[in-house]
Specification:
By secondary structure, the chain is α/β, with parallel strands linked by helices. It folds into two domains: 7-161 and 320-357, Medium-chain alcohol dehydrogenases, catalytic domain (Quinone Oxidoreductase, Chain A, domain 1), CATH 3.90.180.10; 164-297, NAD(P)-binding Rossmann-like Domain (Rossmann fold, 3-Layer(aba) Sandwich), CATH 3.40.50. The protein is built from eleven helices and 19 strands. The strands form five sheets. Strands 3, 4, 5, 10, 11, 18 and 19 form a seven-stranded mixed sheet that branches. Strand 16, helix 8 and strand 17 form a beta-alpha-beta unit. The longest helix is centred in the C-terminal third of the chain and has 14 residues, at 303-316. The chain is globular, with a radius of gyration of 20 Å. It starts with 6 loop residues before the first strand and ends with a helix.
């Protein structure tokens, strides 16, 4: 068949063949009045994709097309779409639908809607499935589709749609800005953006890393100082010094939580956006009572935060550091293996979709 009846995507069949991609014809949801079809030009790779395809976050039935950091061209818009027109360069992140009617949605918390639909491995209420961005096209609700500013290059803009909003939203909701001291743990795909946002918002920003090789990068990204967590007693000089700590590492199940929570000021946040496959270490109530730290977390962000993020990225020059690979079955497999091995500094964007999907 082909577009608009079907899309084509690079998919995996299950956790046992997580790095073996092949082309599959995908059936999108029925097109609605608020829908937008995006002809994809770039899709970045997120650790969420890796956690999903390996089964780390649960079993799934393939074929599964992942990818939720998408930039492309709007090629079809529903009759009720007002802000985007055919031909616009747009982006779609990790959510493609919510009810927009419940109390959470009305309170600008649509990213926590009980009926929300993730960009992939998620089912709509009519039984149809959402498919990700390792594909020729994507279909999404206009509320979750954003015009990309002209000054943001396509391959660089793509990671902002998930990694960007995931790290930006908790910082602004916590009131991070001048006069605040912020620590960012785990300087990878998420953390290298968390550092840039915190600095762009005016906070005194520090990187916490186990990698001495990343010290120079961290300072280029906006860190005033780098705290090496492999040093014995690293936390001692920093007890109760941070207003907000953003954990972007997905290995918190291996953390000495007493040490990490000790650096947070009373009533400050140790905030989780990196999500490990395994549970956090067991913690006693006394661990929280002693220093009054709060252990918090968040998922994505809302529509207004995404709009503000794109504006701030242009104004302050916030840019994901990306390595670009042409999309193909082979390169998708290679990319997820490199992601598993933490080889990217700091994000991978898959590009050249025109060649992969033989567009005229």
């Amino acid at each position: 068949m082909g577009y608009p009846d079907t899309f084509t995507g690079f998919c995996v069949d299950g956790p046992k063949s997580w790095n073996k991609f092949h082309k599959v014809e995908l059936k999108p949801k029925p097109f609605g009045d608020h829908d937008i079809d995006v002809q994809i030009d770039a899709c970045s790779l997120c650790s969420s994709d890796l956690h999903t395809i390996t089964g780390g976050w649960g079993e799934y039935a393939g074929p599964l097309c992942v990818g939720h950091e998408v930039v492309g061209k709007a090629v079809k818009v529903g009759q009720h779409v007002k802000t985007i027109k055919v031909g616009d360069r747009v982006g779609v992140g990790a959510q493609v639908w919510s009810c927009l009617e419940c109390d959470l949605c009305k309170d600008r918390n649509e990213n926590y809607c009980a009926r929300m639909v993730d960009t992939y491995n998620a089912q709509y209420e009519d039984g149809s499935w959402a498919h990700g961005g390792f594909a020729s096209h994507m279909r999404a609700h206009d509320y979750f589709t954003f015009k990309i500013p002209d000054k943001l290059e396509t391959n660089v803009a793509a990671p902002l749609l998930c990694a960007g909003i995931t790290t930006y939203s908790p910082l602004v909701r916590a009131g991070v800005g001048p006069g605040k001291r912020v620590g960012v743990i785990g300087i990878g795909g998420l953390g290298h953006l968390g550092l840039q946002w915190a600095a762009a918002l005016g906070a005194e920003t520090y990187a916490l890393s186990h990698s001495p090789s990343k010290v120079d990068d961290c300072k280029k990204l906006g860190a005033k100082e780098v705290i090496l967590t492999t040093d014995k007693g690293w936390h001692e000089p920093w007890k109760a010094k941070f207003d907000f700590v953003l954990n972007c590492a997905d290995v918190a199940d291996q953390f000495d939580m007493a040490a990490y929570l000790s650096i947070v000021k009373p009533t400050g946040d140790f905030h989780m956006v990196g999500i490990p496959n395994k549970p956090l270490p067991q913690m006693s109530a006394g661990l929280f009572v002693g220093g009054a730290a709060k252990l918090t977390g968040s998922h994505l962000g809302n529509h207004q935060e995404m709009e503000a993020l794109l504006k701030l990225a242009v104004e302050k020059g916030v840019k994901p550091w990306v390595e670009v690979m042409p999309i193909s079955a082979e390169s998708c497999g290679k990319a997820v293996e490199l992601q598993r091995d933490n080889k990217f500094r700091y994000r991978c964007t898959l590009a050249k979709f025109d060649e992969a999907f033989e567009r005229a």
